[in-house]
Amino acid sequence: MAKIKAAILGFGTVGQGIYQVINEKREDLKKSLGLDIEISAILVNNLSKVRPETPGVLITDDFEDIINIPGLQVVFEGIVNEEPAYSYLCRAIDKGCHVITANKVMFSKYSIPLQERAKSRGVFIGYEATTAGGVPVIKTLKNLLQVNTVEKIQGILNGTSNYILTQMRLNECQFEDALKEAQELGYAEADPYNDVSGKDAFYKLMILSALAFGKQPNWNDVKIIGIDDITLEDVKKAKKEGLRYRHVAEIVQDEDGELYASVGPQLVGSDHPLYAIDGVNNAVSLDTNYIGTLTLVGPGAGSLPTASVMVEDYAEIIGKRAGFFITI
């Protein structure tokens, strides 16, 4: 059976999830795709850090060890920041590797040049995991755009902020208490700034913009407001009026092709597609010219939901280019 050589860049929550899912589903993937995927190497930042065992896999802190693997064909990237992730993926693409990323910060800025680079080298980029965790919005959008035109996108793109707003409403607790609980449960980082400020949702919105409209608005023109100024009194008042606070990322294209985007709290009623989305769930509502409004809902965070959609990206790429991967 033909074997696929793959590498994982970064071995935190996402990287460990990828390793787990691939090993658990390896036999199923063999049957469905007729190919065997082998994790040949993992790039880490600190070799001395205690981590799960990975028998037979090269663990290295030097990217040169990764890029020089003979026959390397797929790179899974789960690094946090723009660099060195962007440089690593450029080199992997130039070598002829398909790449699959979960790096929303990097991909929001470089999605268009990276995809142009990949197209010129005859390889693919999978990026489902950059936007809404386990919600298959990228695959859905790609399919819709073959016939439909997307006119508007609204989404709850950050599970942490949604969880906080949900807890404030259900348990009538203060923002600080809901945040602390989210941190204790692992939904929020020790530094939750990107989540509660709206920056995380903004990055994801820009990725969706590039796909849906082929461009992004000027980043400086996008108004971003967080949820940290919403008080318990605000939430109680909204509840009495039958409304709920949602932290909504939104982008609209007008008739002249201009894009208008924003991220911030909105009060929504029971007729709104995002009204019922509670907890750490994400949701994306797409307004299209033929289908109308379509809303996708699912878990927005966590190791395994993110890893699973990355492995699904791998399976999709294999399905498209199986002949490219076969090696003896």
Describe it for me?
- By secondary structure, the protein is α/β, with parallel strands linked by helices.
- The chain is built from twelve helices and twelve strands.
- It has helices at residues 13-33, 63-67, 85-94, 104-121, 137-144, 159-171, 175-184, 193-197, 199-213, 232-240, 303-320, 322-325, and strands spanning 2-9, 35-43, 58-60, 72-77, 98-101, 125-126, 150-156, 223-224, 244-253, 259-268, 281-288, 293-299.
- Strands 3-2-1-4-5-6 form a six-stranded parallel beta sheet, sandwiched between helices. Strands 8-10-9-7-11-12 form a six-stranded mixed beta sheet.
- α1 packs parallel to α11 and α3 packs parallel to α4 (104-121).
- The chain is globular and about 60 Å long.
- GO terms for molecular function: homoserine dehydrogenase activity; NADP binding.
- Keywords: Amino-acid biosynthesis, Methionine biosynthesis, NADP, Oxidoreductase, Sodium, Threonine biosynthesis.
Uncertain residue ranges: 322-328
What structural class results from the helix and strand content?
alpha/beta
Name the strands of the widest sheet in spatial order.
3-2-1-4-5-6
The overall average pLDDT, rounded, is: 92
Taking the sheet with the most strands, its summary is: 6 strands, parallel
Q: Could you provide a short overview of the structure?
A:
The protein has helices spanning 13-33, 63-67, 85-94, 104-121, 137-144, 159-171, 175-184, 193-197, 199-213, 232-240, 303-320, 322-325; strands at residues 2-9, 35-43, 58-60, 72-77, 98-101, 125-126, 150-156, 223-224, 244-253, 259-268, 281-288, 293-299. It has 328 residues and is an alpha/beta fold. Pathway: Amino-acid biosynthesis; L-threonine biosynthesis; L-threonine from L-aspartate: step 3/5; Amino-acid biosynthesis; L-methionine biosynthesis via de novo pathway; L-homoserine from L-aspartate: step 3/3.
